[in-house]
Design a protein that fits this description.
92 residues; 46% helix; four-stranded mixed sheet; alpha+beta
């Protein structure tokens, strides 16, 4: 899966990585639904850090379609709320 963090580049994630990312995505969804700014900020940072750690960066000139678009690290709770689907940011 190709993922993009807004304002950054793209990374390729293995399917096996989605389990860890989905756990953080569930926590992020819960924090957003509860309006928990502190929990939201902490969990968004952990999710993006995990994507950076697990993903293999694509070259800057690569033009791959992104199956997953994640908010920038400085996104607000309301901005992320608008990006969420029923099952969070990450499908599955």
């Amino acid at each position: 899966m190709i993922a993009r963090i807004m304002g950054e580049g793209q990374v390729r994630l293995a399917d096996a990585d989605l389990t860890e990312l989905n756990t953080l995505d569930d926590e992020l969804l819960a924090a957003v639904e509860a309006g928990d700014e502190e929990g939201f900020r902490r969990t968004l940072g952990a999710l993006l850090d995990s994507v950076r750690r697990l993903g293999a960066p694509l070259p800057d000139d690569a033009l791959e379609p992104s199956q997953l678009i994640l908010p920038a690290p400085d996104a607000t709770l309301d901005e992320v709320r608008e990006m969420l689907h029923d099952d969070g940011l990450i499908p599955g």
